[in-house]
Design goal:
The protein is an all-alpha fold.
Length: 170
């Protein structure tokens, strides 16, 4: 899992850059960035849906903060894949969505970071995911449905960062 670790490190580095727009929630988003893919760990796989498996581990074993668990559960517009897997009701019942601006921030961090931790344009990241899984895979189909949600999140955070930078704050 060295490549997954490199990705998580890159996602966390992106989260640190968002501190000027996140205020008091900056550390929460950074923690979620570090942990967003924990559900891929082989020992944690239960449903095969890594946002849910990771959030359950954080809640049940690590006894993590509920907001952190909700961000992990819903990262990168996860509701679309949950729906494809027949897990949407379970996801929403166990982990109500966290505030939209925090979900957008985590999505921005994840979807502008490549598998090796480097910064990517969101369109390149989406193409990389499709390439990795192939066109018929459930993940590719889910990402295709989630693309408007993902790109809107990235655009929103990009705009907020630009506003803060223009004001000389960040």
């Amino acid at each position: 899992m060295p490549r997954r670790w490199a990705h998580s490190q890159g996602v966390a580095a992106r989260a640190v850059e968002l501190a000027p727009i996140l205020g008091a929630d900056a550390e929460l988003v950074e923690a979620a960035a570090w942990l967003h893919d924990i559900g891929y760990a082989p020992d944690l796989v239960d449903t095969g849906f890594h946002p849910l498996d990771g959030a359950r581990y954080l809640r049940d074993v690590a006894k993590a903060d509920g907001r952190l668990c909700r961000l992990v559960a819903h990262h990168s517009c996860a509701v679309f894949e949950a729906e494809q897997r027949g897990l949407l009701d379970v996801l929403q019942a166990e982990f109500p969505q966290e505030a939209a601006e925090l979900r957008q921030a985590l999505t921005y961090c994840d979807m502008t970071t490549g598998p090796d931790g480097t910064h990517l344009h969101v369109n390149d990241r989406l193409a990389e995911i499709h390439s990795r899984y192939g066109p018929e895979h459930l993940v590719s189909r889910s990402i295709a449905k989630a693309t408007p949600c993902i790109t809107a999140a990235v655009e929103s955070i990009t705009g907020r960062l630009a506003d803060v930078r223009a004001a000389g704050i960040g």
